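Worked example 3 (structure in, sequence out).
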């Protein structure tokens, strides 16, 4: 049994912009693919994600994990919260907890988290204007099984620590696959 990871892009990206993530995970032995998502409200993009990503393990037992950079992670989280999905894991690269300057939106953006049943890895910069770190730390317990990794001084990009983030992601996904 293996695991296959589908990763969505941020609001200003495309599947092509996730190539460093995909290539890095493949070098680490994880089957990974980037997917294109329509750039609209995250809730509306869930249908597109589910049209591309299998909702449950494949016939050969391959587990399905989803995630993404910012917007892509939010779309994946909304899909994982739906009752008829059976993802093995989620990985969020810079989860957009709230719009910059609107931390009051954090509760709304995490209301679905208790419905997520699989393990979650969150990787975030501690200076991310889309996720005030104290709000992110306070929200993580809403997830049943989650690990938060933060990077001091980083904002809404993990590029400077991408190799570390991918090492952690690969270990997390490999552990899920058993």
């Amino acid at each position: 049994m293996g695991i296959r990871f589908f990763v969505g892009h941020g609001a200003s990206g495309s599947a092509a912009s996730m190539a460093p993530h995909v290539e890095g995970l493949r070098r680490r032995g994880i089957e990974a693919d980037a997917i294109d998502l329509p750039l609209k409200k995250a809730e509306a993009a869930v249908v597109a994600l589910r049209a591309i990503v299998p909702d449950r393990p494949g016939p050969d037992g391959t587990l399905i994990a989803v995630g993404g950079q910012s917007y892509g992670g939010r779309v994946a989280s909304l899909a994982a919260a739906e009752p008829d999905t059976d993802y093995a894991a989620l990985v969020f690269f810079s989860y957009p907890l709230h719009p910059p300057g609107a931390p009051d939106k954090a509760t709304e953006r995490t209301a679905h988290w208790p419905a997520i049943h699989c393990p979650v890895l969150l990787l975030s910069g501690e200076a991310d204007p889309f996720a005030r770190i104290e709000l992110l730390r306070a929200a993580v317990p809403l997830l049943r099984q989650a690990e938060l990794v933060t990077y001091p001084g980083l904002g809404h990009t993990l590029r400077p620590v991408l190799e570390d983030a991918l090492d952690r992601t690969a270990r997390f996904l490999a552990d899920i696959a058993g």
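Notes: The chain is about 30% helix and 20% strand. Helices lie at 19-27, 42-52, 71-80, 106-109, 133-139, 162-177.
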